[in-house]
Design a protein that fits this description.
The chain is mainly α. It has helices spanning 2-7, 12-32, 34-40, 47-68, 73-96, 120-138, 146-164, 169-185, 190-213, 222-233, 239-254, 278-311, 315-339, 358-419, 421-427; strands at 98-100, 103-105, 108-110, 117-119. It is built from 15 helices and 4 strands. This is Probable peptidoglycan glycosyltransferase FtsW.
Length: 428
């Protein structure tokens, strides 16, 4: 184990906080899966769900380990080609999305021969962030032309978002917001950002109008999006109100110290209690202290991302850390905000804590790239340190040679004086 830890490169703070979140997730998932166990198996045995979650986390950490060994600039080279592959996957997902538990889940596809479901928008977001970081780092030294950036940057971005929007509005909004943050950090002109934001709002309004006028043209989750916004802004009862009500009851029941691990009551009534609403179960069982503890871990992880971005030796590295790291924290905040009804129900999971396979693996894939950036910083620092040591050793060697030459010169001078008779006469 000690040897394995020594082989881990990159920011040790990120490794530590990720490991703490993953370890903490075992108990809430084990407890909150009872609802799924009763529905799926009828016996309430959640051990199988815990083993499955542990396997997902274990594979996730293997992904982090493998990816962090890859130099991060390799991803810069393949991001443009990977974007075309992502578009094909998103188009396939939109047309052939699978059904989970009898419900339309057009965000997911079934992976052949493996039997697991995969949310393609998570992969699309990672590829898109790297693509945007690549573009902004490429144009760092050249004045940005809005006309050229439309075709080289914004057309690919909007094509990706168009594929995601009908099935998942919350993910589309999160990705678009993060792209704006990236281009802002990359010093994209503010007036151009304003034009892009205005265009995005106009397009979204047009999309919603079309969806309401022709509901059969968008059979996926557009109706769900519209109903969730309507329910959030009005007092009409709905399915989301039931979820929020149970989540708030769970949070209120937890009080300061919580009911204790495994003693949640609302987990038996709250849908998606092990994924979308797991934060409510955490607060119910571990209280306000537990909820603030989880929030603190995410904020500490954000702090390490900020430090890693600041230390990155290239603009591309800085933007990659921001583009892949910040969305994890924003997603966690959105998940917590939904549980306390600050935001409408979005379906965003709690990264590294909620149960799930592909979502955990994609999060770990992004973390592997971030740690690869921090590993490069360490390698450069180590090279500078080694160079300084070599220079110091060389200087010591030179000083020693000079000292030896001085001693030899002195000895030669003394012997020469002793042998010279005139020197003896003068001394008398």
């Amino acid at each position: 184990m000690k040897q394995l830890v020594n082989n881990l490169k990159g920011d040790k703070g990120i490794w530590s906080f990720v490991a703490l979140l993953a370890l903490f997730s075992f108990m809430p998932v084990f407890s909150a899966s009872s609802n799924l166990a009763y529905i799926g198996q009828g016996n309430g045995n959640t051990l199988g769900y815990l083993v499955k979650h542990i396997a997902h986390i274990g594979i996730g950490f293997l992904i982090i380990y493998w990816v962090h060994k890859v130099p991060y600039h390799y991803f810069k080279a393949i991001s443009k080609g990977a974007l075309y592959v992502v578009w094909l996957l998103l188009a396939y997902t939109l047309s052939k999305g699978t059904v989970i538990a009898g419900a339309n889940a057009s965000r997911w596809i079934q992976v052949p021969f493996i039997g697991i479901t995969f949310q393609t928008s998570t992969l699309a977001s990672i590829v898109l962030y790297i693509f945007v970081a690549r573009y902004m780092s490429k144009t760092r030294e050249v004045p940005i032309s809005f006309k050229s950036s439309i075709w080289e940057l914004w057309v690919p971005v909007f094509i990706t978002l168009i594929f995601i929007l009908p099935a998942n509005f919350s993910t589309t909004a999160l990705i678009f917001s993060m792209v704006l943050v990236l281009v802002f950090i990359g010093k994209y002109p503010l007036r151009y950002i304003g034009i892009v934001v205005g265009s995005g709002i106009v397009f979204l309004a047009f999309f919603i109008l079309i969806a309401k006028a022709f509901p059969d043209a968008f059979p996926n989750r557009v109706d769900t999006l519209i109903s969730r916004i309507d329910n959030f802004t009005s007092d009409k009862p709905g399915e989301d109100d039931y979820q929020i009500e149970k989540a708030k009851i769970a949070i209120a029941s937890g009080k300061i110290y919580g009911l204790g691990p495994g003693k949640s009551i609302q987990k038996n009534f709250l849908p998606q209690s092990s994924s979308d609403f797991i934060f409510a179960i955490i607060v119910e069982e571990y209280g306000l202290i537990g909820g603030l503890g989880v929030l603190t871990l995410y904020l500490l992880l954000l702090f390490r991302f900020v430090i890693a971005s600041h230390k990155a030796n290239s603009l591309f590295g800085k933007l990659v850390v921001v583009g892949l790291g910040f969305p994890m924290i924003f997603q966690a905040m959105v998940n917590m905000a939904v549980a306390v009804e600050l935001l409408p129900v979005t379906g965003q999971t709690l990264p590294l804590i909620s149960s799930g396979g592909s979502s955990i693996w994609m999060t770990c894939f992004a973390l592997g790239i971030i740690i690869s950036v921090t590993k490069k910083e360490e390698e450069i620092a180590q090279e500078l340190k080694d160079a300084a040591k070599r220079e110091e050793a060389l200087q010591k060697l030179i000083d020693r040679e000079l000292e030896e030459e001085e001693v030899v010169a002195e000895n030669y001078s003394i012997e020469d004086k002793a042998k010279n008779p005139m020197h003896a006469v003068l001394n008398k």
